[in-house]
Amino acid sequence: MKKHNFNPGPSILPQYTIDGTAAAIKDFMGTGLSILEVSHRGKEFDAVMNDAVALVKEVLGVPEGYAVLFVGGGASTQFFHVPYNLLEKKAAYLKTGEWATKAAKEAELFGEVVIVASSEDKNFSYVPKGYVIPTDVDYFHITTNNTIYGTEIMTDLDSPVTLVADMSSDIFSRPVDVAKYGLIYAGAQKNLGPAGVTLVIVREDLLGKMTRKMPKMVDYRTHIKSNSMFNTPPVVNVYACMLTLQWLKNNGGLVAMDKVNAAKSELLYAEIDRNKCFVGTAAKEDRSRMNVCFVMAEGYKELEAEFISFASSKGLVGIKGHRSVGGFRASLYNALPLESVQALVDAMREFEASH
Ligand code: PMP
């Protein structure tokens, strides 16, 4: 049976990426070697890295003056790379979930951290509004999509100070005005590629201003100078990311993704709002298009495990909610087709009819 993959990350990738990576594992660009065993210093991989960087710039519309990097360590490593490079005295953070909280906590090792606003009072089920971004800080950090709680900041904020964004779980899901951000980072394992590589887009004029000493691996300038090959990069992961970027480009880019992602999430939210058995957990105006969180409605609470196993019998995998929210989370990343969302909606209807 065909599986419908709603995993939150690592998560569904385009078949194009999976097939292309499998082919390169057998024979990398006609070298007669597997991509698992080639040197990152060879001309073939050099071309892969250059293509991946060029495709990020093209697909996302990265303006002049920004560097695009592929680094190791996951998004969690960026939680301290960012303040290492940009926090001299004070930084501001918007506390919208577990990842935002972890990012702010790491920054405290480097200077003063101001939490401008938090939605912790309601289990991060909304995105705070009406806050004022201080002007005496080195940067303002946001998490554009809160993977665990299913909320999303869909607009590119106007910030009086350098705006830093963790876009791990919604990058490439819609067009973004990169010029509004000083730095964007994203772990690859949702909309881009396998876990283990992180995309960083940084405005170069922000760098080199810290008085502190930094390990070379932490200094973004090291990676800029060496085209993300100061040390051995995660070769296969970068290759897979390049394939996904090609897929994005060949499938209408971010304008097309935006449309499909709107259609997918509207379909599912409409069913959650209509179906008597289920209720959404995030504030309607802040609902994420990538991670749709919902629970059993009053009167149906004891049916949670039954719905999970019913869904599983229909080939729907990865819909169990994160322990902080409970219930269900359906992740609708770029590579998930509309038909998978329809299959989930059909299962919810069938479940309702039988209860
Ligand atoms: N930020 C967000 C928004 C995430 O969803 C995640 C992980 N899912 C992380 C950061 C941490 O990423 P990593 O596991 O790559 O360190």
UniProtKB/TrEMBL annotation:
One of its GO terms (cellular component) is cytoplasm. It is an enzyme of class 2 (transferase). One of its GO terms (biological process) is pyridoxine biosynthetic process. Transmembrane segments: none annotated. L-glutamate binds at residue 41. It holds the Pfam family Aminotran_5. Belongs to the class-V pyridoxal-phosphate-dependent aminotransferase family. SerC subfamily. HAMAP family: SerC_aminotrans_5. Homodimer. This is Phosphoserine aminotransferase. It comes from Levilinea saccharolytica.
